[in-house]
Amino acid sequence: MSLDTGRRPGRPRPAGRSRRAPDASVEAPPEGGSRGDAPLPLIVAGSVAGAAASGVALMALGLVSLVAWMLAPAAELEARTMLEIASGAWLAGQGLPIVIQGVTVTLLPLGFGLVSVALLAVAGRWATRASAVGRRGEALVVAATAALTYGLIAAIVALLARNLAVSPLRAFLVCGLLALVVVTVVSLRTSIPGALRAGPVVRDIAAGACAGALLLLAAGALGVLASLLLHMPDVGLLLGRLQPDLAGAVLITVLSLAYLPVVTVWSTSYLLGPGFTIGDGSVIAPLSDVPATTVPGLPLLAALPAEAPPFGVILPALGIGMGAIVGWLLRRRGRTALPGVAIAAGAALGTGAIMALASWVASGGLGDARLASLGPSPLLVGAASAGAILIGALAVVAWPARSIETTLTVVSEDVHG
């Protein structure tokens, strides 16, 4: 007698399908959790991220202020005043105008803002991994709690530092929105691959726009460096007039680093042609005479050109050269001929929008009527950036790519002809 098992003769049993009794030697995971470290609750992780991002920045600026105060114990400013100035520097870096000793500062130190964005990105990435985010809704919960915590801390700082004349509600809304945007983007990119992925055309346009803006800003940064090297005697003369002690030197250094991104945007606007306004409406541009005007006592501003350079007429050509590089990048992506022209136009418009936004952020005033309007015109810089990138990119992508078959045909005709 034979038993029919329902399995064809000679067919092996599938691997890994055999039943066996559970191994008692394997330790079961603890009840109510999984093996290893349990993920943090979403709300806890987001709150910690918001508190850490704001706390690290505030402690760093407070430490610099206290060090400067201790290096000059005979100064009239008290330690509380120095901490208030540090709080004002942090709030100003978020985009909030402040009042320091009766002077309204709307020219924001972008360096502090970039540090805050970097801290938010790092904290958001940690919170996403620590809470094991796996869905869009969870990422939004982490971002919302981080933004709420970040905004509440900003409101508390504005409330305690009353002399800065910053509205706590405005501080909560502005700083909370900044944290919400940064942490949302970072959390989605970290937890959900492809969550922010767009189509190939949009990706190429975005890549070209970002590349164009970065190339223009890099040229502006090199311009700042070259101007500083050429005007080192003027910088030394300004420092000699200020006669800072050790504490003053620390504060001037930190302040110069904070305003370095602002001066970089100004330099980019100068290279593109529109230039920038400084003093009582005076415009400094490569194609016009530089008027005599009063500037703030910042060593970076001592490097302003004293006169229009003899080669100023060719400086805007640098932007066209940056556009040619963008066109080369698009051509490497296979964007040529009519489709390449359309994508290059989109990239140029994107670059113009980015540079217009950067010019708007890098403009403001320092309270005095003579220094109430500082920085480039967003409209002019955006138009000049878009035009330069478009001209340079079109010169590269407008030509259709030669296929391999066409090249082989030409070579064959040359050989047999």
Structural category:
mainly alpha
Net shape: flat
Largest pleated sheet: 2 strands, antiparallel
List segments where confidence is low: pLDDT < 50 over at least 5 consecutive residues: 1-36, 404-408
CA-CA gap between termini: 86 Å
The assembly state of the depicted protein chains is: single chain
Describe this structure in words.
The strands form two sheets. The chain has a two-stranded antiparallel ribbon. Strands 3-4 form a two-stranded antiparallel sheet. Mean pLDDT is 82; it is low at 1-36 and 404-408. A hairpin with a 2-residue loop joins strand 1 (98-100) and strand 2. It has helices at 42-71, 79-93, 110-130, 136-160, 168-191, 200-230, 232-242, 246-258, 260-272, 317-332, 337-361, 378-397, 404-416; strands spanning 98-100, 103-105, 276-278, 282-284. The chain starts with 41 loop residues before the first helix and ends with a helix. It is flat and about 65 Å long. The longest helix has 31 residues, at 200-230. With 417 residues, it is mainly α. The chain contains 13 helices and four strands.
Task: Provide the descriptors you would attach to this structure in a database record.
two-stranded antiparallel ribbon; 62% helix; disordered N terminus; 3% strand; mainly alpha; 417 residues; single chain; flat
Write the layout of secondary structure elements.
Blueprint lengths: L41 H30 L7 H15 L4 E3 L2 E3 L4 H21 L5 H25 L7 H24 L8 H31 L1 H11 L3 H13 L1 H13 L3 E3 L3 E3 L32 H16 L4 H25 L16 H20 L6 H13 L1
Antiparallel strand pairs: 1-2, 3-4
Helix pairs in contact: 1-2, 1-3, 1-4, 1-8, 2-3, 3-5, 4-5, 6-9, 6-10, 6-11, 9-11, 10-11, 10-12, 11-12
